[in-house]
Amino acid sequence: MAGRLRSEASAYLRQHAGNPVDWWPFGDQAFEQARLRDVPVFVSVGYAACHWCHVMAGESFEDQATAEYLNEHFIPVKVDREERPDVDSIYMSATQLMTGQGGWPMSVFALPDGRAFYSGTYFPPRPQPGQPSFRQVLQAVREAWEQRRGAVETTAASVAQALAQAGEANRGLLGDLSVGPGGGLPLPAGGPSAGWGPVQVPSGETGGTDHQAVLEEAVEVLSGQEDTVFGGFGGAPKFPPSAVLHFLLRHAGASRSQSAQLAAGLSARTLLAMAGSALYDQLEGGFARYTVDRQWSVPHFEKMLYDNVQLLRVYAQWAVQSPAGAERDLGCSVAAGTAGWLVDRLQLSHGGIASSLDADTVVDGVHHEGATYLWSPAELCEVLGADDGGWVASVMSVGERGNVTATRSTLHPGRPLEPDEQQRWAALRPALLAARQRRAQPARDEKVVAGWNGLAVAGLAEAGELLGRPDLTAAAGAAAEYLLSVHLDDSGRLARVSHDGAAQHFEGLLEDYAGCAEGMFALYAATGQGRWYRAAEGLVLRAEAVFLRDGTLSDQAVPAAQVAAAAGAVPSADPLESATPSGTSLFAGVLATYAAYSGSARHRQLGGRLLGYLGRIAARAPRAAGWGLAAAQALAAGPVELAVTGQPAAAAGLIAAARASGSPGMVVARHAAGPGQEEAAPLLADKPVPADGALAFVCRGMVCRRPVATAAALLTELGAAGN
């Protein structure tokens, strides 16, 4: 019975193990049962932190009569969208095709071969205006299956054909990705560091003026989409534009052009707005998934790893790119708060990082959305006293009438605090946090997702370096160690998900391989330890072998038979982005980094070709291409390669100065001092190591300028290199 779900890695699946519904995990056995019994498959897709998933579970999946009907006439399959994004993606496309909208929980009815024929999202237990009850839907689908089978199969065929056409269109954005034979970039006689002189810009797919025009046009379009009143882009619901901010900061750091200044303003206004909003947890740090309103005041309270690791990186970079003052201080504060929350609340004892905290808090057996985080004026005064409690209520937008429930509100100033307010808030915050921690807390989904953990490694490693926090670098190292020891097997195969230290069978997607490579490269840049570089290199090369065949890219290695049938036998390769970077854009970014470290012209060319789709969609939908635009910005800038040798303290000072320059996608290789340390990246080959101090070499295409020993001279060299 539903006990099949008890040993699953997914907390979402385990949440349903006690339902009277006879759930199956997604797989061949479930669909074979449907074929043998000649019944349709009901596929229910959600995730552990999803509020409305909990609502439908309580209303329908825990109802005995509904469960008995579902068990008798269907094979019920439960899917965690975070564990199986391949399943979620194809059925979400089918749902949007059939209904014009999507969301979770997602309810899909499919043939025993996997093709969808009817779908929706949340269905209530009783009919509502314009919406049938879940029981009515089940009865209607059963009737159609038994009495109009031909029409059901015709619909399934039509849906699969339409999805195949959409899949071909997505693949068409990428075009032919074939590249020439491998080999390094042309180097001057005598090796990479011979004849130090003017930088030679290597030719590439993304380095020309046409591509720069695409980047500038994307900034212009984003400017037109800005919410000039409340910050961010678009209206309600309002999501953190994490990847877009990554691009805007890189564009702002690339030059002093008018477009760069526009990007700097766009990113700063959005970052300021989010920092003072209810999206950001003012007590503990970390960001909620989105706000339901345009003003950023009412969050949907789930806190996801993938949002927070991207925003950690963005705020840390904004801080170092900003001049000394309020913006730099705020960026450092939010980055530190987000990193602290991530390590304290999501990092597990074995080093891996959990997926999310739930939107709901269970109080006396009942799910309450956001209950942990809400306050009334009376509650504030009870903890702080009348004077301080009243002041916090005033500053943090907590009134007698709540903005989430009738009497309780989120804490958010809605603006940057003045210096005296910051000081008073800092003194009062610990008491409120301690009081909040005594409340019931949201549940944690402890499955470890490879790609998200890779991005977490990158965010923690960069924040540790930029903020001068070796504890964050150590946390990044622990997560990276977990990925290599648990998710990666001896053949180089990467598992997407693990739980409690055990990897699951499903192989990682392109986004997992590329996300982990991104993290390993960032950790290598922060530490100089060659093992992280070698791990990243192995992930890049295996990803190329597994996901790129005959000039055609795929998001997954071997699609499940049911997913392939639902997609009309067209393998998925979607470069467009949503809450997380697409596999395509992540892979393009790590290819650019790998080419800069290794000198591989073939990998640089491949990265450029992967980003060819930007010219077709960046001006129309830049918010669906933020990470891809950031990768393209790095390629357009070189990226600049920085090799640093010498004593650790002096080397760190030079690297910090270079990081503050904002050079897009700068690749850093540092000499790792100490016995037994080997220089893994070819970028460091033949670079002299001074006995005292440090030397910095600014390079592009493995062609290096003369070494310098001071931060001022390094900044001059970076400027001369075209930063």
Q: Poorly predicted ranges (pLDDT <50, ≥5 residues)? A: 181-209
Strand order of the largest sheet: 1-3-2-4-5
Number of strands: 21
Structure class: alpha+beta
End-to-end C-alpha gap: 62 Å
What does this 3D model show about the protein?
Helices cover 49% and strands 10% of the residues. The protein is of the alpha+beta class and 723 residues long. It has a five-stranded mixed sheet, sandwiched between helices. Strands 19-18-20-21 form a four-stranded mixed sheet, with helices on both faces. Strands 8-9-12 form a three-stranded antiparallel sheet. Helix 25 links the parallel strand 18 and strand 19. Helix 9 runs parallel beside helix 11 and helix 21 runs parallel beside helix 24. The N and C termini lie far apart (62 Å).
Question: What topology does this entry show?
Answer:
Elements: H1 11-15, E1 24-25, H2 28-37, E2 41-46, H3 51-61, H4 64-73, E3 75-80, H5 85-99, E4 106-110, E5 116-120, H6 134-147, H7 149-174, H8 209-225, H9 242-254, H10 258-275, E6 290-291, E7 299-300, E8 303-304, H11 305-321, H12 326-346, E9 356-357, E10 360-363, E11 366-369, H13 377-384, H14 386-395, H15 419-437, E12 444-445, E13 448-449, H16 450-466, H17 470-487, E14 497-499, E15 502-503, H18 510-527, H19 530-547, E16 548-549, E17 552-553, H20 561-566, H21 583-598, H22 601-610, H23 614-617, H24 626-636, E18 641-646, H25 648-660, E19 667-670, E20 694-700, E21 703-704, H26 711-720
Parallel strand pairs: 1-3, 2-3, 18-19
Antiparallel strand pairs: 2-4, 4-5, 6-7, 8-9, 9-12, 10-11, 13-14, 14-15, 16-17, 18-20, 20-21
Helix pairs in contact: 5-7, 8-10, 8-24, 9-10, 9-11, 9-24, 10-12, 11-12, 11-16, 13-14, 16-17, 16-18, 17-18, 18-19, 18-21, 19-21, 21-22, 21-24, 25-26
